[in-house]
């Protein structure tokens, strides 16, 4: 049975009237309006998703401290991203559906809020990347998610650092790259990129997210061949991101009828990323036979 993931958090919050133009992005609402994040988790669960991805993609202790919070307050907000999602999951538990909370672990470039997660190659050493990622992952893990969503990774070197931390932490996790054509966003061949996941027992799925939908199928082929692990696929709508204006441009190419093909390629986890909303996830769940479209 295919696990249906949720869609984009930022677009769902924007549709609810929130301005996400500052560098904290969705993480700002962990401080200012956590009930709104909870409402989006509920909307995706109602649409047929069985995984809530937390609002921690762009959350970091340093980022919250730059906004004026103390370190203790910042650490509490990172953990709150998991708590909010867990509370929504638990309030729906009486219907017997198994739902999961995936703690989002975005790349280093996400906290820079300048589009770096679509380029990689930040000029940091692996030690610097490890020193950034480990404390945040440990904070998220301590808050009690079901698994970690190591996502939108643009660079195989960063992925290798993240995979080693995940193996140490011991929680199940998925690894998904942001890709463009046949390479990572940093330009590395996908065979090289997916090789970092081989032999890592903690990784329950490997694949791609926040990419053009047309890039999914070729990447899943490589991921399956290199790792032998179940695939994961949750592309964006194929639109372009303008980091200067913090807007998406172009038209959508997200088509839920592509999803059965991804499943046939071995994708056990399927959903959507930026600009994919609850209505899209409802249609996806219907196509995959998980729930009637709403």
From TrEMBL:
Residues 1-288 form the Hcy-binding domain. It holds the Pfam family S-methyl_trans. Zn(2+) binds at residues 210, 273-274. It comes from the Bacteria. One of its GO terms (biological process) is S-methylmethionine cycle. Its EC number is 2.1.1.10. GO terms for molecular function: S-adenosylmethionine-homocysteine S-methyltransferase activity; zinc ion binding. Keywords: Metal-binding, Methyltransferase, Transferase, Zinc. Binds 1 zinc ion per subunit. The keyword Repeat does not apply. It is an enzyme of class 2 (transferase). Its cofactor is Zn(2+). This is Homocysteine S-methyltransferase.
């Amino acid at each position: 049975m295919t696990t249906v993931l949720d869609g984009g958090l930022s677009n769902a919050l924007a549709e609810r009237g929130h301005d996400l133009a500052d560098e904290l992005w969705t993480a700002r609402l962990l401080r200012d309006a956590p009930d709104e994040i909870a409402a989006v988790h509920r909307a995706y669960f109602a649409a047929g998703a069985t995984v809530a991805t937390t609002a921690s993609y762009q959350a970091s202790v340093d980022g919250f401290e730059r906004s004026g919070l103390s370190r203790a307050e910042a650490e509490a907000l990172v953990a709150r991203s998991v708590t909010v999602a867990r509370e929504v999951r638990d309030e729906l538990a009486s219907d017997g559906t198994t739902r999961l909370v995936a703690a989002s672990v975005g790349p280093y470039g996400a906290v820079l809020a300048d589009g770096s997660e679509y380029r990689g190659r930040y000029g940091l050493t692996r030690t610097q990347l490890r020193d950034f990622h480990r404390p945040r992952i440990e904070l998220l893990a301590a808050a009690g998610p079901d698994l970690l969503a190591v996502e939108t990774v643009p660079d195989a070197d960063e992925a290798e650092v993240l995979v080693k931390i995940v193996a140490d932490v011991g929680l199940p996790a998925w690894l998904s790259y942001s890709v463009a054509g046949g390479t990572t966003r940093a330009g590395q061949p996908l065979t090289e990129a997916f090789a970092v996941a081989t032999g890592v027992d903690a990784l329950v799925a490997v694949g791609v997210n926040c990419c053009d939908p047309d890039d999914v199928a070729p990447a899943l082929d490589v991921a399956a061949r290199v790792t032998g692990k179940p695939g994961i696929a949750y592309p964006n709508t194929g639109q372009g991101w303008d980091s200067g204006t913090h807007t998406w441009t172009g038209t959508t190419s997200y088509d839920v009828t592509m999803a059965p093909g991804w499943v046939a390629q071995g994708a056990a986890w399927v959903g959507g990323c930026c600009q994919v909303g609850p209505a899209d996830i409802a249609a996806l769940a219907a196509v995959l036979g998980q729930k009637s479209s709403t």
